[in-house]
């Protein structure tokens, strides 16, 4: 039986029976898969933190094509993001961003970009602490990569770029951009749309330098949360406690 390797971040983890644990990874190279760690919850030799939500791990597994899960031979912890998880807010952020990734990442598909985005966001937050501004950055990058959020900022009616208009609006329900030349818009989203446009082409640290106002990120995050509700049809389980803790509820 062939033994293969994968590196990834645990985005789901659940107990099976008395001693096993099933995990799902946002992986670096393979498709999203489930991995069974047999006896891990009672093992004195293997660290159970390798199956913890938000842990970056390397897995050696048996490639069993006939099963819905892969049996783990060895698993090694690469990074637990201890600094980030050392306080309540950081832990809530890890739970939220991994749950969001799990919802966006279909099983059986390969999206190395989501692994890179998630690991980069956790690395940055582990090093510099959680920053609220990273929330819309992560969501927009993930949604646009998966083809859910439009990346060309053109008015649905006139076809002209909305970023050069006096005002513009993003309709969450229709997933369309509208400019003030063509429509009476209920709210001007232009500052946020300019932020979104920059987020799609710049590193997070560079975006912070170009757009220093936290209110722009909060407004952008509000739009993206509305978008996620329309996409998923429900709220993430980790949403309420996390957003109450950061003061957005």
From TrEMBL:
InterPro entries reported for this sequence: ARFGAP/RecO, DNA_rep/recomb_RecO_N, NA-bd_OB-fold, RecO, RecO_C
Cellular component GO terms held in the UniProt record: bacterial nucleoid
Secreted among keywords: no
Domain (DNA replication/recombination mediator RecO N-terminal) ranges: 1-80
Any matching Pfam family: RecO_N
Keywords of the record: DNA damage, DNA recombination, DNA repair
Single Gene Ontology BP annotation: DNA recombination
Source superkingdom: Bacteria
Family: Belongs to the RecO family.
Function per UniProt: Involved in DNA repair and RecF pathway recombination.
Name of the protein in its database record: DNA repair protein RecO
Organism: Leptospira congkakensis
Name of the gene encoding the protein in the UniProt record: recO
């Amino acid at each position: 039986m062939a033994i293969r390797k994968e590196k990834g971040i645990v985005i789901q983890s659940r107990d099976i029976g008395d001693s096993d644990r099933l995990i799902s990874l946002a992986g670096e190279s393979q498709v999203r898969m489930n991995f069974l760690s047999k006896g891990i919850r009672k093992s004195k030799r293997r660290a159970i933190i390798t199956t913890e939500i938000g842990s970056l791990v390397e897995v050696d597994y048996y490639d069993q094509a006939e099963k819905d899960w892969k049996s783990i031979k060895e698993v090694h912890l690469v990074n637990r993001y201890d600094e980030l998880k050392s306080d309540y807010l950081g832990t809530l952020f890890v739970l939220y961003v991994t749950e969001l990734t799990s919802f966006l990442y279909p099983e059986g598909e390969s999206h190395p970009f989501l692994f890179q985005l998630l690991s980069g966001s956790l690395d940055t937050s582990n090093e510099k602490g959680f920053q609220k501004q990273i929330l819309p950055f992560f969501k927009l990058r993930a949604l646009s990569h998966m083809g859910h959020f439009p990346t060309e900022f053109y008015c649905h009616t006139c076809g002209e770029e909305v970023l050069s208009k006096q005002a513009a609006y993003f309709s969450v329900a229709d997933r369309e951009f509208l400019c003030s030349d063509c429509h009476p818009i209920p709210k001007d989203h232009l500052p946020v749309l300019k932020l979104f446009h920059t987020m799609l082409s710049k590193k997070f640290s560079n975006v912070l330098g170009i757009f220093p106002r936290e209110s722009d990120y909060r407004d952008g995050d509000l739009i993206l949360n509305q978008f996620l509700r329309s996409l998923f049809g429900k709220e993430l389980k980790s949403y309420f406690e996390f957003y109450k803790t950061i003061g957005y509820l």
